[in-house]
Amino acid sequence: MSDLPITLTPAAPAPAKKSRRGRRILGLTLVVLFLLLGLATFLLLRLIDPPGDPVAEADLGGVTWVRSIYGMSLAPEDQFLRTASAVPGPDGSIYIIDSQHRAVMRFTPDGRFIEMFRGPEDDPLISPSRMTVSSDGLMYIVETQQDRVRVLDSAGNDAGSFNIPRPVSVAVSDDRIVVGSIMGFAILDKEGSPIEIIGSRGQADYQFDYVHGVAIAENGNIFVADSFNNRLSAYDADGNRLWIVRTGMPGNQADMEDGRLTVREAEDQVLKGQDALQLPLGITLDGAGRIVVADMFECTLAVFNAEDGSFVGKFGNVGAEDGKFFYPTSVSYDPQRDWFTVADSLNSRAQIVRIPGSSGGGDLVAAANRALTGPVRACAIPLALVIMALAVFLISRARKKKQKDALTTS
Amino acid sequence: MPEDPVQQGDSKTQANRTPGPGRTKRPSSIFDDKAVRIMAFVATGVLILFLVTVVSALLTGVLQQTGPRTLMERELTVTGQAIDAGTTDASVWGQHIAALVATEQYARARAAIADARESVDDSKTADIALGEARLLRAQGEYQQALTAADKAIEQIDKYYEAQIARGGVVGRAAELQGKHENYYTAKLLKAKIYEDMEDWEGALEYYNQFIEGNPGAADILVDRGNVKLRLGDESGAEADFREALRFDPYYPRAHDGLERIGASQ
User: Fold this and answer.
1) Residues of B numbered 38-57 whose beta carbons fall under 8 angstroms of chain A's beta carbons: which are they?
2) Which of A115, A232, A387, B156 has the fewest CB atoms within 10 Å, counting from its CB?
3) What digits encode the pLDDT tens for the residues B39-54?
4) Which domains occur in chain A, in start order?
5) Residue A136 contacts residue A172 (beta carbons within 8 Å)
């Protein structure tokens, strides 16, 4: 070996080597990798995407279908038979009552079953129908046959009950409970003591025939669906009536005369034609402060102005496909996600749907909340990683540039 | 004299790069190429992201499923489990085949038809024959689909006649009950197949036969009205749209039909 000194060549950086072979190998590897990842992603999406093509929105009467919940598991005995109530909880959980199971079932917002509540062993739920969940997680469950409203805590333990003759609906705010019955409605404090009881059974003014829907606004106003009289009415927090409208032909104005059933026309102003409701049942308030009513027989969601009860529009179609309704009995609104939970009774399912104009602003937050309840939430961590990596890259590049500038200056 | 820091830095860097006494030259690698290094980084990054996404999907429960999520998934699940449990109910098999066809799982539908033929008696309700007709229609085999639908009609007819011929209570019951509902379902399917084939005369004939047995079917009245429009029979179409509105006064398709022909509503 020669002992020639090695001369250090100064400064001029060596040009980057180009390796054709390396580029080919890596290029090919990248293509194969992307193909494999594409295939894996496709298989994952197939796993996430349920079978069956979604129905075109045009056929859904303006409703946007989010998802359906059919049962607790894939076992036939765990499927719903007649859903009576579907309401959101404060954390977005969906509580469903099904007459087949005589229990309250809780699901995640993306429809996964969590738990079932049957009430305490010594006093189980017997015939739960409608329910609501308060902001502190208490479940208020109507048992019409037992003339009472049961209260269960968030773990399903007994938290009391109060007796009301023939209750058929319930709503809760921070300081009030409103219970609809077959003959009117009662305003109670949170202990269950009556503040005001309004109505008697009948067809006249201040009479009611099955109050299947009650809702409480943020300002304390109360909205009532008087089902068989086909009327909507609004009251202030003390029970003073603000307005009343006839939303269609009453379902109780037929009399037997000489052996023939004769339908009496309503004498007051009645909503007619396509605007008319057939049987208003469940009622809720959306984010825009509008009243949304489940019309059981027309299988639609009807929207009314909360200020005066004027008709705004109708959404939905009758049918068995996901997004259509068949005898919907209850409707509730989740303001965090801007969607409605509907007990689609004869389709034996609960549906989560959206209708236009329901949000009261905060669309982006609601959209993000909705996205996080779907499969997209699996991408949240990788997205955060990408953002972090980008941030690290940009910071280190900026530092290097700063160092280089400092060296150049000195 | 203090050393120039820039010179010092440069010489250090250079010393690291260049083999000195006692250092061996690093063999050249494909990663010496900047483009290759970038590609390698991208590939590693994408792979890591994918793996993180899968782990995230597992942790967040996206891949966990409890109950059915769509109508079709429920149909497939419930009927599938009944079949696995050994049901001999032809209508369950029929529903299962219909759900497989609706979700475009044609190979599985074909296999289910073969299994059903070995497992159940289809002579009474013709569910399996109807399922086959549905499958063939979905696959665009219209002539074969018509033949399968005809077979279903023939099966139900034959069973019905046999029951009548038995006389007594059985015959009387058959008379009262009439032919199984699948008889008209098969006729309707034939009408739809003719529509797919754009054979409007054929479609009209079978819509007529279906409506004869189901005079209150508003949706089919509208379908027939639309076929009549294709055949240029505006007055016939108007009559069908109006008849549909008699059963469902707010039926949008019927109103659309009247609007298209300019009839008053």
Assistant:
1) 39-40, 42-43, 45-50, 52-54, 56-57
2) A387
3) 888 888 888 888 888 8
4) 68-256+264-374 (2.120.10.30)
5) no
